[in-house]
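Justification of resources, computational component.

The compute hours requested in this renewal are based largely on the per-chain cost of generating structure records like the one below. Each record pairs the submitted sequence with a full structure-token output. That output is archived, and it is also reused by downstream analysis tasks.
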Amino acid sequence: MTNIIILGVNHRTAPVEIREQIALVCREQTNPLHVYPRLGRVEELFFLSTCNRVELLFTCRSAREGVEEVKQLLKRHLGGSEIADSLEGCLYLFYNEEAVKHLFRVASSLDSMVVGEPQILGQIKAAYREATQYRTVSVILNRLLHKSFSVAKRVRSETRIGSSAVSISYAAVELARKIFGELADKKILLVGAGEMAELAAAHFLAQGVRRMLVANRTLERALEMAKRFRAETIPFDHFQDALMDVDIVLTSTGAAEPILLPGDVKSRMRKRRNRPLFFIDIAVPRDVDPRVNQLDNVYVYDIDDLQGVVALNQAQRQKEAERGEHIIAEESLKFQEWLGTLEVVPTIIALRKKAEGIRRQELRRTFTQLPDLDDRHREALEVLTESIVNKLLHDPIVFLKKKNRRSTKKSFMDFTQQLFNLTEGSDVDSSSLDSAEG
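The structure output for this chain reads:
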């Protein structure tokens, strides 16, 4: 029997210190899927890496051996025993139906730090494209991942889970609003001009903010974002000088190490006469050295601190999330039923093949004995014999499919093969699976 397993680490199981190390390695190194041909126990493999989770979805015959092989793969990918050792206590495992449910929950953003955020589905689709390029997914994971896309779409369309702006960037702006109250008279510095910063800018604008500065390593991107959100740009190399004038700094760069150290901030605080300065660091790895928070009148919030803001929003969306969970449970059951048919598919195909062989053989014999038949009558006999075979096979095939979740399934398969003297094929392609399901 094939097992579907997920091994991973996310924002619930690992603190930001570990996640930022993982994110850094995953950003710099090659995709671990490139070693797939060297794996002996894993049949299919999918790799997802975001700022808040790293997960490996795979199929294998032996769960114990497959898990061990994927653990070693993850540790080799991360490199160095320090990360691997600290990671051991943060890993989680989901098997079969629970793995399917977990994937559906992730794709539907029910497992995100901010429930309902839309970015995760795009990240899963991008990871799936990579998996298809590396040819690491086949019949089962292809079906499962495509199903996760449709489940996510169904959750979003049938619930109001995405009716309000929900993302890490939104939570960051909510935090700023709770600190200052009105934001209209505040000056904001956005360091980084990626998707997260863009979302934050949109939310700040919606809160009435009229003064925003954008600093980005690529000037063209900064100018593009400034034009969209009525902001100004400043040179990235001099963004620290802007600390003397702004009230809130939101950082979301892809830097490998902190871009703001205690000394950088302390010298500017004197010039701003110790007016409070707030940093909201939504980058992983973090942009702001945690020691900056120890300075007087300086307050630093990182991505884990946003959990408090998220928690306040959770209550409002809980009812919608519960409706989403019901959809996921329903779709997971459907997928399990499909998965169960895979074991009986070779028997069904063998049964159809034998019946078709007999039909064609007897039809040829009949045509030999009736040489005067014209094409119209020959075609009528073809249709007649096909219809008889299909009707005779219908009940046995339905019977086998209905037994796919029973513990006695193997006995029914063996009995069918003996009864009809079948020889099962060992390999079945996806087109055969589709025809057998009909």
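The domain at 3-158 is CATH 3.30.460.30 (Beta Polymerase; domain 2). The CA atoms of residues 45 and 58 lie 4 Å apart.
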